[in-house]
Amino acid sequence: MQTAAELGAPEPRRMASRPVDWIVEMMAEGAAVEVIDMRELGMEKLVKTRLAYSRAWHHVSLASPTTPSLGRLASRIAILLMGKHKPIWDPSTDCGDYVVATGCNDVLVTGKKKEQKMYYKRTTRPGVMKSLSMESMIRKWGGGEVLKRAVRGMLPKNRLRDKRLERLKVFEGEAHPYRTNLVRFEGRIRQVEPEVKTELLKQTSVQRCD
C-alpha cells in the first residue's frame, strides 16, 4: 500500500481544534487537516483547573438578623479564605476567595464577652504587658479588628496566613467599594445597567411626576 508522500498528496498537519470556518478555508486550499479533540491533549482538564483556581468574592453583612455570632461567623469566613469549600483544596495551596464583611460595628457576641474577653499585647521587656477588653477595642479600633483577630486565630499558623487574611475586607458600615466585584449580592445575581438607561429612567420618572 502506497503512502501519501508517494502519491504526491500533502502531509496532514495535526493541530488542535479551531473555528470551523478556518478549517474549511484550509481544506479549500488543498491542505489535509486532521482535527484533534482537545480532550486527547489534556487541555480540557487544564481549562477546568484554571477556572477552579479563580477567586470569587463573597459578601457578609453583620447587620443582618440571620448572621451568626462572632465565633461561628469567623469559622465560616476562614473556610472561604482557605478555599476548603472547593474540590481542589490543598493545605499547601492558596486557593481561597475574597470576603467582604460590612456592618462590623454590629458584631454579635454572646454572654458577657464584650466585658470579659481580653486581648493582650506582649513586648520583650518585663512588666509591660498591655491588656485591652473587647468593648474597648470596638470603641478604639472598631468591630472589624475584632472580626479580623477572630478569623486570624482560626487560620492555620503557616506562611499563608497573612496572605489569606489580606483577602478579608472589613467595613464598619454597609458601604464598600467592592460592589462590582461581587458575583452575588444579597442572594441575587448582580445586574449592572448602563448609565444611559438609568438616566432615561430618571427622566421618565420626573416627567411622570410633573
How would you describe what is shown here?
The protein has 210 residues and is of the alpha/beta class. The chain is built from nine helices and nine strands. The strands form four sheets. A three-stranded parallel β-sheet has the order 3-4-7. The protein is globular and about 95 Å long. 39% of the residues lie in helices and 16% in strands. It has helices at residues 4-7, 20-28, 43-52, 70-82, 113-116, 134-141, 143-154, 161-166, 195-209; strands at 13-16, 33-36, 57-61, 98-102, 118-121, 130-133, 168-170, 184-185, 188-189. The protein starts with a helix and ends with a helix. Helix 6 (134-141) crosses helix 7 (143-154).
The unreliable regions are: 12-20, 189-210
Note the beta-strand portion: 15-25%
Fraction of residues in H or I helices: 25-40%
Mean pLDDT: 75
Tally of contiguous helical segments: 9
Biggest sheet, spatial arrangement of strands: 3-4-7
Q: Helices and strands: which structural class?
A: alpha/beta
**How many individual β-strands?**
9
Largest sheet: 3 strands, parallel
Cα gyration radius (Å): 28 Å
Topology pattern, helix = H, strand = E: HEHEHEHEHEEHHHEEEH
Q: What gross morphology would you assign?
A: globular
Cα-to-Cα separation, first versus last residue: 88 Å
Describe the structure using short key phrases.
single chain, 210 residues, alpha/beta, three-stranded parallel beta sheet, globular, disordered C terminus
Quick overview of this protein structure:
The chain contains nine helices and nine strands. By secondary structure, it is α/β, with parallel strands linked by helices.
